[in-house]
Specification:
Blueprint lengths: L7 E6 L2 H13 L3 E5 L1 H11 L4 E5 L6 H11 L5 E4 L5 H9 L3 E4 L5 H14 L1
Parallel strand pairs: 1-2, 1-3, 3-4, 4-5
Helix pairs in contact: 1-5, 2-3
């Protein structure tokens, strides 16, 4: 019996070309990474594969709340890292409402996002 030791990460992004650098970065650090184009395809992936962490790349900042709400209906217990530029009180309320969820700011770099993924995997 083989024991899987790597963390499984599902990256959800409407534009997969934007998330490819993150996918390559995580894969090079021994994460097992799957991607899907938007929340509609996330259902298909979640039906056949269980990630330890999901990374949500929202369409835009205005969509974060509704996308997190839909993602939580699909998979309420899997930790989510949300890539966002917002750091205000509304985002903090969303993080609490849709826990376990962590924000990560893409402008701080891929290592910062990986750190958030590692923290999220410890939550699960």
């Amino acid at each position: 019996m083989e024991i899987e030791s790597t963390t499984r990460v599902l990256v959800i992004d409407d534009d997969a070309s934007n998330s490819q650098p993150l996918v390559h970065f995580l894969s090079s650090r021994d994460y097992t990474v799957e991607t899907c184009c938007g929340l509609g395809h996330a259902r298909d992936v979640l039906a056949r594969w269980r990630p330890h962490v999901m990374v949500l790349v929202p369409r835009d900042e205005a969509e974060v709340h509704s996308e997190m709400e839909e993602l939580r209906r699909m998979s309420p217990r899997v930790p989510v890292v949300v890539l966002t530029l917002a750091a205000g009180p509304q985002m903090m309320l969303d993080m609490e409402a849709f826990a376990p969820t962590l924000p990560a700011c893409p402008s701080r770099g891929l290592a910062y996002i990986e750190s958030a993924v590692a923290d999220a995997s410890a939550m699960g």
